[in-house]
Amino acid sequence: MFVENSRRYAVFEGKHFDVTKEEIRLVLAILLLSGYNVQARNRMYWDTGIDTYHPGVANAISRSRFEQILRFMHVSDNAALDVQDKFTKVRPLWEKLNEKWMKYWPQYNEVSIDESMIPYYGHHSTKQHIHGKPIRFGFKCWCMSTRLGYLIQAIPYQGASTGNTNPDLGTIRANRVENAPLESIADIKKKQRGSYDQIIDETSGVSLVRYNDNNVVTVASTCEGVSPVGSAQRWSSAERKKISIQQPFCVQMYNQYMGGVDRLDQNIGCYRISINKKKWYWQLLMWPLNASMNNAFQLYRLSPAGQEKGHLDFLAFIRSVVTTYLRRYASARSLGRPMKPSRKRRVPDDVRLDGADHLIISSATQIRCAECHKNTTKKCRKCDVGCHTNCFEIFHS
């Protein structure tokens, strides 16, 4: 998908561009690497400075080739976009991954459906602001996940046309019960903590429960009801101690399994891809890649290898994937010369101009003079750059 549509986009832009699956895999590996090995600028992965150089990246693909692939990276055909779909630029990738996530998910009975935020701070008609979320500005996405955070399905929210989600278990607003004859919130608030009211729709089998805890909540469920009633510990201000109150079974189940999407957000946030572009849809390409890596790790944890002693944690798992891609798909054709700053820029001024211990010594091979840029067999011992005898004083002043 990446290969075909990136080629189409280059033709659409009037450019000649070709790319292979191996190169796409290398680019994906570098993107994932940027989640745990963050650089202030993308080009610093190829910079030969002592504090930045990354040989694994520089030896796998050249900087110019990496930037060229990022420029044309696409997953949709610009000549066949759906004008009614606000996310048509990324829809093919989401549909493909939704299919794969569903195919391999560990099939638990309990799933969570909730909203997740994809960070975006630019201008777009679907951008949302949700106060109180760790990511307050961005694209909202409806997610269904397992308790441990495996993403089963995800739909980016674009307004009323997104389509309705119908969770089997969850809290609903008090005014969304379609005039069901539940006790009013005001009446149930007057009762003691732990009180509840339940009605069942005989046609659909939906059970509605209104429960008085720290606040009054309304729960709708197609699978659980009040029974068997459990208990919960709550602090009583009047008695100045913890007391035991009743708790319907559907509320217990909801509390136990409701945090799957939050766990997904937590996992993605740990090593989120840090390489960014100004395209509005860029984060909508990167977020599902992070989610796919999270899903792969969840499956690894359930495998025999993930159960053994000394199994990989999430970071080690991502590194294993990245290093495998960098080693397997790097080719001599894609190797490029790493970007080198000028020799003066490579030596900080505080070192070059400190006037201490700068000595001319012989170099084992010919190198470029940092001042006149001609070949020389001399270099400065402290600065470790080439320098003719007559250029030495100029370079250090």
TrEMBL record:
Every copy of the PiggyBac transposable element-derived protein domain together lies at 6-165, 169-297
The protein's organism comes out as Parnassius mnemosyne (clouded apollo)
An MF annotation (GO) of this entry: sequence-specific DNA binding
- Report the InterPro entries cross-referenced here: PGBD, PiggyBac_TE-derived
Return the protein name. PiggyBac transposable element-derived protein domain-containing protein
Q: Name one Pfam family in it.
A: DDE_Tnp_1_7
